[in-house]
Design brief:
CATH superfamily: Gcn5-related N-acetyltransferase (GNAT)
Number of domains: 1
Radius of gyration: 20 Å
Order of helices and strands: EEEEHEHHEH
CATH architecture: 3-Layer(aba) Sandwich
Shape: globular
Largest sheet: 6 strands, mixed
Number of helices: 4
CATH class: Alpha Beta
Strand order of the largest sheet: 1-2-3-4-5-6
Number of strands: 6
Helix content: 25-40%
CATH topology: Aminopeptidase
Length: 189
């Protein structure tokens, strides 16, 4: 007789997350995350991420010349204000480390999927920033004054989670050396 040991669960987690690698015609190979809320037995949301290598003149991590980063291609929750979006962002940070991206996460904030409630303010509250500091200041002002983002400022905005200074400096130094070596190789050819 075969016996299986099944540990007792003291508490069912509030959120269940399922992930799988899929081939998408639009994004290529991505990791698709699906979240369910066990408290309500409802579908909570979905997120697509993709590991990418960014080259020179990146809009996301301006101090680095070449690096790997996890891009959130798509993030959608069924309801806002219940913590699902933040759970997905935290999951993206973990996934970034698993995929060798050193915690780098970036995305393009857009009002395409939610024109009445653009996600820029949400991403800013989660710690995202951008090289477009005038738009970041405007978003920060909207947060302070509890205002909604004007549609003209809610177009695509490249945003990224900044790294700690000590990590950025080390990575930046090594990436600059690699960039310099690559330039020398191109000149010698």
């Amino acid at each position: 007789m075969l016996s299986l040991y099944i540990p007792k669960i003291k508490k069912i987690p509030d959120l269940l997350i399922y992930s799988r690698k899929v081939q998408s015609p639009r994004f290529g190979e991505i990791t698709h995350f699906t979240m369910a809320d066990t408290r309500t037995s409802e579908f909570a949301g979905t997120m697509y991420t993709k590991k990418v290598t960014e080259d020179l003149f990146s809009q996301y991590y301006p101090t680095l010349s070449c690096y790997d980063s996890l891009k959130i291609e798509y993030l959608r929750t069924e309801e806002s204000g219940l913590g699902y979006g933040r759970a997905f962002i935290n999951l993206a940070k973990i996934q970034s480390r698993k995929e060798g991206c050193n915690g780098r996460v970036h995305l393009d904030a857009s009002r395409v999927y939610t024109p009445r409630r653009p996600p820029h303010i949400f991403y800013r509250k989660c710690g995202f920033t951008s090289i477009y500091q005038d738009r970041i200041k405007y978003i920060d002002e909207c947060i302070r004054k509890h205002k909604q983002l004007h549609w003209s400022m809610a177009d695509n905005l490249p945003m990224y989670l900044p790294l700690k200074k000590e990590n950025t400096c080390k990575v930046s130094f090594y990436s600059k050396i690699l960039s310099y070596i690559n330039k020398l190789k191109k000149l010698s050819q």
